[in-house]
Amino acid sequence: MSVSKSDLIKQLKKIYPNLLKKDLLKIFDIFINEIKLALKNNERVELRGWGIFYQKNQNSRNSRNPKTGEVVYTPEKKNINFRMSKELFKIINEK
User: Are strands 51-58 and 71-74 parallel, antiparallel or unpaired?
Assistant: First the structure.
C-alpha cells in the first residue's frame, strides 16, 4: 500500500477539522518546498524522530553500455539519501 499526497491531506483534515483543505494543501506544499530548497542548497534536513535527508555527489565515470559494450561517459550526479532515525527503525522492525 502506498500513501499519496491526498491521503495525507485527508488524515490531516481528520486531525484538524477546523482548518480548510486549501490551507492544509498550502502548508503541506510549503513544507515539501522547504525540504527541496534546503537539499538544493546542499543542506541537511533533519526531522527528529523520522530521519535525515542529505545530498551526496556521485562522481563522473566511464561506464559501459551493457547491450553494445561501448564505453559511455557518465557525468557527475547529485543523489538524495535518507537515513532513518533509531525510533523509526524500531517502529518499522517491531513484531
Answer: unpaired
